Amino acid sequence: MREASPNRRGLLTAAVLAPIVAAAGAPAAHATEKTPEGTRALRKDLEQARLSPVLKRALFPDPVIIETLELLHDGAVYYIRVRSRDGAEGFAMTNRRLAPLAKPIMLKRSLPYMKGKDARDLDALVDGVFARGLNYKHQGITFWTAVSWVEFAILDMLGNIAGLPVGALIGDRTLNRTHIYYASGNRGNAPEAEVALLQSLIAKSGAKAVKFKLGDRLDYSDASNARDEALIPMARHALGDKTALFVDANSSFDVSRAIETGRMLSAHGYDFFEEPVRFDDFDGTKAVADAVDLPIAGGEQETSHFRYRWLIENDAVQIVQPDVLLGGGYVRATRIARMAAVAGKPIVPHISGWGLGFLHILHFASATPNIGPYQEFKGDKDGIPYEVIGSGAPLQVANGAVDIPTGPGLGIRFDPDYVRALKQVEV
Ligand SMILES: [Mg+2]
114: domain CATH number? Predict the structure, then answer.
């Protein structure tokens, strides 16, 4: 049996997880008090966290009026370029899978809304674009991605003006390097093949943590159960006690199967169990969390901060997983992180594949005090023509960790010839 220590829920936590729980710091005393006074105090603190300003406006004494916003593309990938009235510039890549779907929202909603506004009002702009007209009726990931990309470009521009990386604009940048974990996206392969893949991911990167899939994505079957039951002990045995192991069920199970699986994971010292039941079955998620001895992680599909507040307030998830790209950007992800911190919960951000999701996780991690010790990384297979300012190379993993860019804004530079050749979409 692995070494274990009590966590704040009075349960047993695998030793590898200890840094993740410790990352969150102690919860406010009333976060664990189940009295009416404790509940009211917790709600008050969560609201204060949700509503407190994020962008450090004091860094920008003069107005930064957004004069132009351009949507550019290379035929497959879209980019956003913003310029201020005074000639400052910001540039951000979109996600190639989601941008074609979100393009009409960018063209008709998020880009026109930001035009002519003062970028220093970023917190209010992110709220305003949602509240304007009937935009709130489109709430969800497709809407918020169309806001995130604009926010990234604006923050890149503000970082260029201040000479600071994004993390320093939204908080105190305290992290320059972070450990990473790799996630396998496989389902349906043989357990032996999956373990071999996880071993190869660890061997090539030095990662000390990996994640793999369970269930059958929003479903499970006799075949997926058999794979899960073989894979869970096999992966632990093959990868050893010092590797942090995470699993993601992508909403596969009903509550009883999730509890059964959770107990199996717990018996083998797994470190978190992501989306055990349908992501929007909050009661079900809480029922699983209450019944098993390992942390439940979730949040990647969620874009409502009131629903995030419920998940945190009711301890339905113990690890909170906002996605900077899917959820509206850094300002909104920071609000979630601050709510989680009130309840002593760590953040392990969800990553958006296909794009620079890993870059945004790094900047977000650099300024989020309750960030977990391992960030998901997919940075070596996107083929994006960029380099980290100052290094002349793309982000690279060494000994299981990656340096967080320190240059202004997003801290990267695209190949100038590539950018010059991009075509413009009329906004
Ligand atoms: Mg997931």
Answer: 3.30.390.10
Pair 255, 391 in one domain: yes
Q: How far is the CA of 274 from the centre of ligand 1 (A)?
A: 6
The C-alpha angle with vertex 198 and arms to 12 and 1, in degrees rounded to 5, equals: 25
Place of tokens 């953040």: 347
Ligand 1 centroid to 314 CA: how many Å? 21
pLDDT tens digits along 47-81: 999 999 999 999 999 999 999 999 999 998 999 99
Q: Looking at the whole model, is its pTM more than 0.90?
A: yes
What is the whole-number distance in angstroms between the Cα of residue 254 and the centre of ligand 1?
A: 16
Same domain (yes/no): 219, 361: yes
Residue 189 and residue 216 in one domain: yes
Residues 74 and 185 in one domain: no
Listed residue (152, 149, 155) closest to 56, CA to CA: 155
Looking at the 3D structure of the chain, how many domains does it have? 2
pLDDT at 310 over 50: yes
Cβ neighbours of residue 320 closer than 8 Å, sequence gap 6 or more: 297, 298, 299, 308, 311, 312, 336, 337, 340, 345, 346, 347, 348
pLDDT in tens, 85-124: 999 999 999 998 999 999 999 999 999 999 999 999 999 9
The answer on 342 and 218 residing in a single domain is yes
Q: How confident is the model at residue 258, as a pLDDT?
A: 98
Separation of 177 CA from ligand 1 center, angstroms?
23
Residue range 197-225: average pLDDT?
97
pLDDT digits (tens, 9 = 90+) for 340-357: 999 999 999 999 877 799
- Compute the residue count for the chain: 427
Rounded to the nearest whole angstrom, what is the distance from the C-alpha of residue 298 to the centroid of ligand 1?
7
Which CATH number does the domain housing residue 175 bear? 3.20.20.120
The answer to whether residues 46 and 144 belong to one domain is no
Same domain, 74 and 92: yes
Using pLDDT thresholds of 50, 70 and 90, give the confidence band for residue 4. Answer: very low
Query: Domain check: are 337 and 398 in the same one?
Result: yes
C-alpha 322 to ligand 1 mean position (Å): 11
Domain assignment of residue 130, given as a range: 57-163+416-425
